[in-house]
């Protein structure tokens, strides 16, 4: 049987209206990659996997929820969609709207969106509007305008986004033949952790799989769920999760608590170090996507989480290609030599 996307594979398990008309780019079915060297660096004795969501059609996990949200909107005849975004949602909405023949409008915080995301949104023909302000302000604007104009809101406030994103939890359980003991992931607007928890709970009830502990990880400069209050001016190198007022913050806190897990914060340094660690195991992710593992490392090193003998899945939400500039800024540039054998030999023997 050929693979036809997350709605074809899991649609029967999702709460989507009858009118839903599938719009797919064959998203999902992403690999669960063993990372034994990273497991060793975390102290060993753990079976560690990366769920590499950067391998979705537009390079991030957003495509799972977007196929559901756009399919619902298309099925009821919507002609235009709108979202606020730190970048990945914008690129995904733009691609799926293009696929559906719809207009897409995306609001992004000016100067704070990684190059590959902005380029994607533009390439797919979305109307990209830059806000002189934060993601949180952009989200407040799109919520208001979607009440006034015929624009379907496709941020993760949209319940169908969550339905689609549950499929990642299903895939993890189906690939392992069981739920993991721990699942760690970055948290921004908190749609993804909400969706994973809903998905794991659904499989727990229908397939009797266990429930994992969830470790949600925020960037220290944008950690409202750790601080217990909104952050007016969020900052972090991980621009994807530069969010101070998560729309599903309450649900994220509940998911962490009910699962016997928690939400923690890590520094930009920890995020970049883990991005490098993953890259040196062959998996290049964008900075935000390394936050989950950075948080796991922090909790293991602090003696607060013990993963010996356990199965752990780290969700890496977006591809490294999304944010090439960060590599230029945080790593050594390539060397330049004249086109001479002597120069090459000298360089390689140095
Ligand atoms: C790579 O694109 O919010 O906690 O507007 O791009 O579900 O918000 C992106 C979020 C993690 C956080 N990793 O997920 C957007 C946006 C990556 C991301 C998150 C995002 P949520």
Describe this protein's structure.
- With 350 residues, the chain is of the alpha/beta class.
- The chain folds into 2 domains: 6-59 and 161-328, Rossmann fold, CATH 3.40.50; 62-158, Rossmann fold (3-Layer(aba) Sandwich), CATH 3.40.50.1100.
- 44% of the residues lie in helices and 15% in strands.
- The protein is built from 14 helices and 10 strands.
- It has helices spanning 6-10, 36-41, 62-75, 88-100, 115-123, 135-148, 159-176, 191-207, 224-227, 249-258, 268-279, 287-301, 324-330, 341-349, and strands at 32-34, 47-52, 80-84, 103-109, 127-131, 152-153, 182-186, 213-219, 262-266, 311-316.
- The strands form 2 sheets. A 6-stranded mixed sheet has the order 1-2-10-7-8-9, with helices on both faces. Strands 5-4-3-6 form a 4-stranded parallel sheet.
- Helix 5 (115-123) links the parallel strand 4 and strand 5.
- Helix 3 packs across helix 7 (159-176) and helix 8 (191-207) packs across helix 10.
- The protein is globular, with a radius of gyration of 20 Å.
- The termini are far apart.
- The relative contact order is 0.15.
- The mean pLDDT is 97.
- The chain binds ligand AN7.
């Amino acid at each position: 049987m050929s693979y036809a996307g997350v709605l074809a594979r899991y649609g029967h398990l999702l709460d989507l209206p009858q009118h839903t008309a599938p719009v797919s780019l064959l998203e999902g079915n992403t690999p669960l990659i063993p990372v034994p060297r990273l497991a060793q660096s975390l102290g060993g004795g753990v079976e560690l996997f990366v769920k590499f969501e950067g391998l979705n059609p537009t390079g991030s996990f957003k495509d799972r929820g977007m196929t559901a949200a756009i399919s619902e909107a298309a099925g009821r005849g919507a002609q235009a969609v709108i979202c606020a975004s730190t970048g990945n949602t914008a690129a995904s909405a733009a691609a799926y709207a293009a696929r559906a023949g719809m207009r897409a409008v995306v609001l992004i915080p000016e100067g704070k969106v990684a190059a590959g995301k902005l380029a994607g949104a533009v390439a797919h023909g979305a109307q990209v509007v830059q806000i002189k302000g934060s993601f949180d302000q952009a989200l407040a604007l799109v919520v208001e305008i979607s009440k006034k104009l015929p624009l379907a809101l496709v941020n993760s406030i949209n319940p169908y986004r969550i339905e689609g994103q549950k499929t990642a939890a299903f895939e993890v359980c189906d690939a392992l033949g069981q739920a993991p003991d721990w699942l760690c992931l970055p948290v921004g607007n908190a749609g993804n952790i909400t969706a994973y928890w809903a998905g794991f709970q659904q499989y727990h009830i229908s397939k009797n799989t266990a429930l994992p502990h969830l470790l949600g990880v925020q960037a220290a400069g944008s950690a409202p769920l750790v601080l217990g209050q909104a952050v007016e001016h969020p900052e972090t190198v991980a621009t994807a999760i530069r969010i101070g007022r998560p729309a599903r913050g309450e649900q994220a806190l509940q998911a962490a608590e009910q699962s016997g897990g928690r939400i923690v914060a890590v520094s930009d340094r920890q995020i970049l170090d883990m991005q490098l660690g993953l890259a040196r195991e062959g998996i290049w992710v964008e900075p935000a996507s390394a936050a989950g593992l950075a948080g796991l490392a922090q909790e293991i090193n602090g003696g607060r989480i013990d993963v010996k003998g356990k199965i752990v899945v780290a969700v890496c939400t977006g591809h490294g290609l999304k944010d090439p500039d960060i590599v230029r800024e945080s790593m050594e540039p390539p060397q330049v030599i004249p086109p001479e054998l002597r120069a090459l030999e000298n360089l390689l023997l140095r």
